Amino acid sequence: MTRILISFIYYGFYLIFPLLFLLIYRTYKKRKVQLEIIVLMLISFVFIWARFVEPNFLITKNYNLNIQNNSQNTLKVVVFSDIHLGAYNDTVLLKRAIKKINKAKPDLVLIPGDFVYFANKENLVENFSVLKDLKMPKIAILGNHDYGKNENNMSKLISSSLESAGVLVIDNKIKILEIKNKNIEIVGLGDLWVGNPDYSILKPSEFEDKIDLTILLTHNPDSIYELKKDSSEIKDINLMVSGHTHAGQMRIPFLYKHVIPSSHGFDKEFYTIDGINLFVTPGIGNVVLPLRIFDFPEISVLNIGF
C-alpha cells in the first residue's frame, strides 16, 4: 500500500502541468486581474523548479578543515549520502555523482548511509554496480532507510550488493587504511535509530599511538551525544561524518528546521560538539516528497589538514 502511495505521489506531480495550464487559461478568458495570472505563473515556476530542476542540479562543494595548527599532512575526502535509490531516484543521478567524484580525485570516499527508499530488491546488485567506477577506497555504513521491518529488512542484501561493487561496509567495525604513508582509522557506528550501534568500538585500543587520523562514520548526527554511552573514555576522534538530515530538503524559511529529523537541530556543514568536529552532508536524494527547495543535492569535498 505504501509503495502504491509513493508511486501515486511521484507520477501525480506530472498532472500539475495540465492543471496549471487550465487555471491560467480560464483566468485569462475571464479577463480577471493580471496579478492572478502572475501569481499562478510564479507558483508554477517554483513548483517546476523544486520538482524537476533543483533535485537534479547536483553540485560539488569544497570545505577546509585543519585538525591542528601548522598541519603537515592533507587528506581529500569526498562525502556523499542519502542516495535513496528507488521510488524517486534511479541510477542517473548516482552516475553523475560518480563522474563528479572522479573529477575531484579524492583520496577516500565516505558514504554515511541511506542508500534506498522503497527500492526493488531485484535491482540492487545491478544498481549499485556503478559504484565500481570509483577507483579510490570507498567506505560506507547503512542508514535508517536501509533496514526495514521483519521480512522487508534489506540491510544484508544492501551490504552484499555494495560489497560486490567494491564498497566496504563497516557498521560497528573499524578499518585502518594507509594513505600517503599515514594510518587513517575509519570507525563505523551503526545507525542510531535502527542499527544497534555498538559504542564499545569507540574505546581506545593499544594501537592508538600508531593512528594519524581518526574519522567516525555514522548516519545520524545525533549520535554524537551518545558516544560515551558505553564508556566515559573514548578514542580521540578528529572528525565525525554524518548525513540523514537532507538539510531540510525543502528549506522554506522559518519552517524547514521544524521538519529536520534531528533532536538536536543539526542541519548541514560543520559543528563542534565536546571538542569533536562534526560534518553533516545534505545528501543527494529525496524522501517523502520528490522536492528540493534552496537545498541542492551535494557532493561534499573535505580538504583535511592534520
Automatic annotation (TrEMBL):
One GO CC annotation: membrane
The positions making up the signal sequence are none
What GO molecular function annotations does the UniProt record carry, in alphabetical order?
Answer: metal ion binding; UDP-2,3-diacylglucosamine hydrolase activity
- The membrane spanning regions, by residue number, are 6-25, 37-53
InterPro entries cross-referenced by the UniProt entry = Calcineurin-like_PHP, Metallo-depent_PP-like, Metallophosphoesterase_sf
The organism's superkingdom is given as: Bacteria
A biological process from GO: lipid A biosynthetic process
Instruction: Keywords in alphabetical order, please.
Output: Hydrolase, Membrane, Metal-binding, Transmembrane, Transmembrane helix
Pfam families assigned: Metallophos (PF00149)
Every Calcineurin-like phosphoesterase domain range = 75-247
Protein name, per record: Calcineurin-like phosphoesterase domain-containing protein
Q: Which organism is it from?
A: Candidatus Falkowbacteria bacterium HGW-Falkowbacteria-1
Recite the lineage of the species. Bacteria, Candidatus Falkowiibacteriota
